[in-house]
Design a protein that fits this description.
alpha/beta; globular; 4-stranded mixed β-sheet; 4-stranded antiparallel β-sheet; 11 strands; single chain; Rossmann fold; 7 helices; about 220 residues; Alpha-Beta Plaits
């Protein structure tokens, strides 16, 4: 629903998107969730007050907030070590940025594409050394807690009322969303891939975030 930008910390939902999410949440009677690789704290900052009215699953399914329940794991010291190593790398490579998350840390090289191979090699090495999961993304390399993914987030959300017994539609644009697409399909729903076509578990596609908003607006007509 939001376009990618060079500096991830500057991502923010505009007023029309926030209003759209509120209207959808009301129309669906609470059956609207945001599933993200970002932490819930980051989603709060991006979405503003509307975040408190939605079901949220953050950090690739590692944390949840919904219906008064706030569940999250303990952050291991290994993530702090990975964060320090990523910061050292960023300081040595102009244009590379570090994004801190509650249960992960990401190295963004969108503004320094020549650093891709080194960044991913560092992330893969640290994942093995620190018992973390290496999660490649769009021009970024992330280390996060092992064991979770967006598919597990979908199954967790769909196991509780009012979502239980309904058919989920999962919309995403990243490789990390593939588990969410597969979970939605397994539960009788479908995935919607946003962006350039590629091999995917999604059954449908939309070209860009503007098309996603247009589609969602149509659901309210």
């Amino acid at each position: 629903m939001l376009d990618l930008i060079d500096r991830p910390e500057l991502v923010v939902a505009d007023a029309p998107l926030r209003a759209l999410l509120m209207r959808l949440g009301e129309r669906l009677e609470g059956r609207l969730a945001i599933v993200s690789g970002r932490s819930i704290a980051q989603m709060d900052a991006i979405l503003g007050p509307v975040a408190r009215h939605l079901a949220l699953s953050g950090s690739h399914g590692s944390e949840h907030r919904w219906q008064g329940v706030d569940a999250h794991p303990i952050r291991p010291p290994s993530l702090d070590e990975a964060q320090a190593r990523f910061r050292d790398f960023a300081e040595a490579h102009a244009g590379v940025l570090v994004e801190d998350k509650s249960f992960g840390v990401a190295l963004h090289y969108r503004m320094a594409p020549d650093a891709e191979a080194e960044a991913e090699a560092l992330a893969a090495t640290l994942a093995e050394q620190l018992d973390l999961q290496f999660q490649p993304g769009k021009m970024m390399a992330e280390l996060r807690l092992p064991g979770g993914d967006k598919g597990k987030a979908v199954h967790t959300l769909m196991g509780r009322a009012p979502m239980a017994g309904t058919k989920p539609w999962f919309v995403g644009d990243d490789a990390t969303d593939e588990a969410g697409f597969a979970a939605a399909h397994a539960l009788g729903g479908a995935g919607v891939l946003v962006g350039k076509r590629r091999p995917t578990a999604a059954l449908y596609a939309l070209p860009d975030p503007a098309a996603v908003r247009h589609w969602l607006e149509g659901l309210l007509a």
